Amino acid sequence: MKSTGAKESRQVSENELDLSLNGDQSDEVIQTLEPFRRMHPGDARSLSRLTANSVDLVVTSPPYWRKRDYKLENQIGQEKTPEEYVTNIISAMREWRRVLRPSGSVFLNIGDTYWQTSLQGIPSSIEVKAKKDGWRLRNRIVWVKSGGTPDPAKDRLTPRHEYILHFALNGYYYDLFGYAEQYSSKNTGANPGDVWTIKRERNLGKHLAPFPSEIAERVITLACPKYVCTKCGTPRRRIVQRTAELDPSRPQAKRAMELAKQKGLTPEHIAAIQATGISDAGKARFTQSGTNKNAEDVKRLAAEAKALLGGYFREFTFAKRKSCGWADCGCGVEFAPGVVLDPFMGTAKTLDVAQKLGRSCIGVDLDLSAVEERAQQ
Ligand SMILES: C[S@@+](CC[C@H](N)C(=O)[O-])C[C@H]1O[C@@H](n2cnc3c(N)ncnc32)[C@H](O)[C@@H]1O
Question: What pTM, to 2 d.p., does this model score?
Answer without folding.
Answer: 0.84
